[in-house]
Amino acid sequence: MKQRTIKNEISFEGTGLHTGTHCRVTLKPAPSDTGIVFVVESEKIPANVDFVSETTRGTTLSKNGITVRTVEHLLSALVGMWVDNVIIEVEGPEIPALDGSSKIFAEEINRVGVVEQDKEVRKLTLKDPFVKEFGDRKLISYPDSKFSVSFAIDYEDRVVGRQFLSIEITPENFLKHVASAKTYVFERDIKGLLEGGFSKGGSLKNAIVITDDGIKNPEIVTFDDEPVRHKILDLLGDLALLGRGRITFSIYAEKTGHKHHIEFVKELKSRIVSGNELSIDDILKYVPHRYPFLLLDKILSLENDRVLALKNVTYNEPFFVGHFPVEPVMPGVLIIEAIAQAGGFMLLSHIENRENKLVFFAGIDNARFRRPVKPGDQLIIETILTKKRGSIVKFRGVARVNGQVVAEADLMASIVERR
Asked: Does residue 380 surpass a pLDDT of 80?
């Protein structure tokens, strides 16, 4: 299956749902392996969970102090219509609300059409089920031959009550069953939302208003079970933040919102596999390090510009003897080294005569240590190539434990000949 982008440029403009500000977005075709990238004030913000800064009443992405709000409806349309690569230029603080759904985005994408590109699509797959619970709310992902979403909501309300829908996500199904589902709000919550700085651009034309007696604006309703369909729409938009690739597993969600979705995606991301799994024997063929300085145990997934690696942190590690022996903590510099080795593996695995090459690191930027790594932890390391010019390369590395980021950094390296 090939990657896809839109055939022609598309623009949308209108009022932002929460800011009430006039906004404009322009979607432009993008080369293979670009992914979905927002461009705001010349800042490029990838549609990736690592850049989520807020999840109250919508999903906000931020980078270097630049933000774009309420991205989920547009992202949902891109996921639903199987658009893998696109540049989204944003004028204003928010994506236009339009009619409160993904319908106009999806229909315009369908109108201009999509084109298959030269490279195969990256398939996002799972080996094992994953469950994330939040009290009585939950999200479950499980291996499947297709991508389907099942969602259940349950309000103590006679108008909405309990609703459930399960649907396979294809462009045809998305257009027919999901795209037109508008956002909704309970009338009793509107005053609080406005006082909190939300829903300034909301109206009876772009949001279904639910009262104690019924629906205040039934003329804009498309489906009898529109709330649960809009929940699926929102979830699809948040799942887009797994990063570049096409989802090929299924998900069940119960009573969840943006905050839960983003926490789920953060942990799910470290469980995604694509490409071939490689053992320690394969690692030894690529990486020049040996005990006690080899810090990788397995390659979970290998692609041209991405590697997912595993490091089991055991009490027998030699560094624990002297590094906080009473309260063992893995040195942060060694976590960065593990990231560097994963990146080195990624680079060497795709060049000829690699046995005659070495990867020397020339720079580390934006290094952050988020939480300690202790014996018994399993370190999942993701490295993504961000720039290549001749023998000089840059990549971003993120290390996680149980889905939580423990360290991250941007690294620069040079591929050189062995002496």
From this structure: yes
Tens of pLDDT, residues 255-271: 999 999 999 999 998 78
Average pLDDT, the chain: 92
The answer for residues whose C-beta is within 8 angstroms of residue 379's C-beta and 6 or more apart is 310, 311, 312, 313, 335, 338, 373, 399, 400, 401, 406
Predicted TM-score of the model (pTM)? 0.77
Distance CA 337, CA 399 (A): 11
The verdict on 136 and 238 lying in the same domain is: yes
275 located within any domain: no
Give the tokens for residue 291: 């005990």
Question: 360: domain range?
Answer: 280-417
- Asked if residue 165 and residue 84 are part of one domain, the reply reads no
Length of the chain: 419
Question: pLDDT of 44-64, one tens digit each?
Answer: 999 999 999 999 989 999 999
Query: Could you list the active site residues?
Result: 258, 323
CB 21 within 8 A of CB 201: yes
Residue pair 30/5 in contact by the 8 Å Cβ criterion? yes
Classify residue 26: in a domain, yes or no: yes
